[in-house]
Amino acid sequence: MDKRLRLLFILFIIRLPILVLGECTCDEEDEDRDRDKALRYKIAAIASILVGGTIGVCIPIIGKKIPALQPEKNVFFVIKAFAAGVILATGFIHVLPDAFESLTSPCLSENPWANFPFTGFVAMLSAIGTLMVDSLSTSYYTRSHLKNALPVLGDEEKVGEHEGQVHVHTHDTHGHTSADEVGSDLIRHRVISQVLELGIVAHSVIIGISLGASESPQTIRPLVAALTFHQFFEGMGLGSCIVQAKFKSRAATIMGLFFSLTTPIGIGIGIGISQVYDENSSTALIIEGIFNAASAGILIYMALVDLLAADFMNPKMQTNKMLQVMANISLLLGAGCMSLIAKWA
Q1: What is the pLDDT of residues 13-25, one digit of tens each?
Q2: Whole-angstrom Cα distance, residue 262 to residue 259?
């Protein structure tokens, strides 16, 4: 009897991996499908996500008119830390796991997808690429700024040749050095805001298409609220960067609208292709996985390097213990709130 039990146990252990793999198929899931009801949820999602994203991105932009919420104030550092935590959690908790799930799916051929960690590789290349774009763009605009300033500096040097005006020349030069530093910071913030929006938009399109192509009300219903908060918090992060970049009203409005409309447009595309879209097809999995991995690399780099490191190493924060404590708490709250949303989205 013991031998039989042992034999059955050994056979069960041998069969277990096969049973587990057998549960993961590439067939469409047997869900409660109701196309009409799902469409109503999708329309509600478009409206809700559009409003949530718009409010989120507008809060920092409109808030700059309030003295306490201006970029040089302590409150702004705290709000930006919260937003950076949201973006960091988006990359680590929302986007990267989705990329792993897509690129390690059993629906893909074992060679090459199961033989190499493509998700981490694409995310790494994306982060390195973001660093290169960040560095090259900043240096290009800085050189352009300095070239435009050269004629002015040349005139000052001519004026400074007169002995009686040596002090005036020195004073003016210091003034322009300060102006150059301000201009360099402005360029830096503009590059950051544009690269960040690129990363956010990339995964927002994927999210929208996936939701729009689904025909299961049970899947869509919890995503409506979760993605609304998701877009709201991300909008706050992007809006904070737009404020620091000091874009003109027209440019800031275009960037805000582009962010707010991306996910609803993705949902619309998903609705349009829902008849032919197969989320388990190799093409869909590869495209979604690569886009999500690249987006995760961008978001993680931007959150850690351009948002958190820049602010947390800022002399203003380094010399203010209370601001440091508040910023750290705000960072943890932002990351925690966004991580909690992952339970539903």
Answers
A1: 344 333 333 344 5
A2: 6
